[in-house]
Design goal:
- The complex is a heterodimer of chains A (194) and B (349).
- With 194 residues, chain A is of the alpha+beta class.
- Helix content of chain A is 20%, strand content 12%.
- Chain A has a domain of 113 residues: Alpha-Beta Plaits.
- Chain A has six helices and five strands.
- In chain A, the strands form two sheets. Chain A has a three-stranded antiparallel β-sheet. Chain A has a two-stranded antiparallel ribbon with strand order 1-4.
- Chain B has one domain.
- Chain B is built from twelve helices and two strands; from the N terminus they run αααββααααααααα.
- In chain B, α3 runs antiparallel to α4 and α4 runs antiparallel to α5.
- Chain B is globular.
- Classes of the chains: A alpha+beta (194), B mainly alpha (349).
- Chains A and B meet through α2 of A and loops of B.
Chain lengths: 194, 349
């Protein structure tokens, strides 16, 4: 019928919903005290509950195995840089956070760079990076991967543009401990099967 | 020369006692702020402040330092002198109560018999009442002098709340006075210490409950913290305050809490009485020290209950607050008084 509004109950999603009671409070309820004591018993029981807090700087929460953190520029077992400055990561990057400059390897630098071409400058703007991991997927040389740490705070915007100093993993030959620490638990292999 | 015939040693003795009690009260209040945060945290499954020092024990000092270092702002539309007077008055009124609290029996030092009470005046409770009602001036003056509508509204709320609950508090107290027959806090405590006599709470359970609720309202503690209702009045009467003036307001709330706990312990829970122990059999100095510890324990328990309630229940609505004060507590207190009187008459006659 036009103009008539039929009141329909919405379909309940669960059977847990309760009708709101508009009854005036009984004498016991008006005293408030039983309800307050009940509430106090509940809060008191929380004294003995286990705290879910993780005390951050001392305790750290384990990351998931697929966590994508700060980038690491990888080296091979002999400590040579793997990056050949092909630019595929920069192309793949949806946030356009990566820039690089290529240079040719000179004779005598074979122990520093794995191939004839290398990245003389390699920068990632951590303020632009969205940590999607597409650079890791794009890299044919297994030279870049995302570690289990995240970018620490900084005072300036400039401080968030990470160069090779910050990104390059320590040399496994000269500093094996630092290398292991930077490498983390995650295997730096996603594209190496190709 | 009769004018100068003062017991100078008594004067020094009292001054030392005043200094000790005031500084001890402030020290306890300092750590009450810490305890408040810890209790809140533990009741909410959190660790609470734990960074400053072992277990976060230096946190109150860090808080105090922070408050002192903050910029002091006096709004240019505020009434300058009253604006400064407000927090001072709140703090003074809060600390004045400790003058009549009997902290313990007497100690014997240097051949003198030193009472551990600043002044055993025969109108002790009346004095406490006077000082407590002065406390509302600190809030009122601060709220008014801020020249801010929220502050003023909060101050009005505080004043009306204090007036409403002081009435029921007074009526509950009259029943205690009928039982003890004295206004001196020392006498009331001594009576409860007599062997074979129970604490006043056993004779006045309803009176204690009313007194406790009113004390909570007087201290502006949740569920009666309408004067500083964060979500509707921003911060209430101390909204315009900053730096240590704000600190004084916040601090006076904790001092008030300690003092009302002490008063409740003295009136209803035997003050410095240790249950199931006859203190007269002990050496007086030992008994005095144990007495102080007993009173402090009672105060700590009361403070914990204050905090426990704060972190359990939400705030009353304004009309509920007035309803509870005028329509529930005052009739109940009157009834309590009437029944007490009838029973006393019956026992005498």
């Amino acid at each position: 019928m036009a103009g008539q509004i039929e009141e329909k109950h919405m379909q309940a999603l669960t059977n847990r919903s309760k009708e709101v009671s508009r009854k005036p409070m009984s004498f016991m309820e008006q005293l408030y005290l039983p309800a307050i004591l009940k509430g106090m018993a509940i809060t008191f029981s929380h004294i003995f509950k286990k705290q879910p807090t993780i005390r951050y700087p001392e305790q750290k929460r384990p990351f998931s195995p697929v966590f994508r953190g700060l980038h690491v520029l990888n080296r091979d077992e002999e400590g040579r840089e793997r990056c050949t400055a092909c630019g595929l990561c920069a192309v793949a990057c949806p946030a356009e956070a990566i820039t690089m400059e290529a240079a040719e390897r000179l004779p005598g630098e074979e122990n520093k760079y794995r191939e004839e071409k290398y990245a003389a400058r390699y920068e990632i703007n951590m303020l632009r990076c969205i940590f999607c991991g597409l650079c890791e997927e794009a890299c044919p040389k297994d030279a870049i991967y995302l570690s289990e740490t995240f970018a620490p705070a900084n005072f300036t915007r400039k401080g968030f543009i990470y160069g090779k100093n910050e990104l390059l993993i320590p040399d496994p030959v000269t500093e094996p401990e630092a290398y292991q620490k930077a490498r983390g638990l995650k295997e730096p292999t996603t594209a190496s099967q190709n | 020369m009769t004018l100068l015939a003062i017991d100078w040693i008594l004067l020094i003795e009292k001054l030392v006692l005043i200094a000790i009690i005031v500084f001890a009260s402030l020290g306890i209040a300092l750590y009450t702020t810490f305890a408040e945060r810890k209790v809140a945290a533990i009741l909410q499954d959190r660790p609470g402040p734990n960074r400053a020092g072992p277990f976060g024990l230096f946190q109150p000092f860090a808080d105090g330092l922070k408050l002192i270092m903050k910029e002091e702002i006096i709004p240019n539309t505020a009434n300058r002198s009253l604006f400064i007077l407000g927090p001072g008055l709140a703090m003074t009124a809060a600390l004045m109560t400790c003058a009549v609290i009997p902290w313990s029996s007497h100690v014997e030092l240097f051949g003198r018999n030193i009472e551990l009470q600043i002044a055993d005046i025969n109108i002790g409770i009346l004095y406490v009442f006077g000082v407590v009602s002065l406390g509302v001036y600190g809030i009122m003056i601060g709220g008014w002098a801020s020249n801010n509508k929220f502050s003023l509204m909060a101050a009005l709320r505080a004043a009306s709340q204090a007036i409403s609950y002081e009435l029921a508090m007074g009526l509950a107290l009259i029943a205690v006075l009928m039982v003890s027959g004295s206004l001196s806090l020392k006498t009331i405590v001594d009576q409860q210490m007599e062997p074979g006599r129970l604490w006043n709470v056993a004779y006045q359970p309803l009176g204690f409950l009313i007194f406790f609720i009113c004390a909570m309202a007087e201290c502006n503690r949740t569920p009666f913290d309408l004067p500083e209702a964060e979500n509707e009045l921003n911060f209430g009467y101390h909204q315009e305050y900053s730096s240590m003036k704000l600190g004084f307001y916040l601090f006076s709330e904790y001092v008030n809490m300690i003092m009302s706990s002490a008063i409740m312990a003295c009136l209803y829970f035997g003050g410095f009485d240790i249950p199931f122990l006859n203190e007269t059999t002990l050496a007086p100095n030992l008994a005095a020290i144990l007495g102080v510890l007993a009173l402090l324990t009672k105060i700590v328990i009361f403070i914990f209950i204050f905090m426990w309630i704060r972190w359990t229940i939400p705030r009353f609505r304004y009309d509920q607050l007035m309803n509870l004060g005028w329509k529930k507590l005052i009739p109940l207190a009157l009834l309590n008084m009437l029944v007490t009187g009838a029973v006393i008459l019956y026992l005498q006659g």
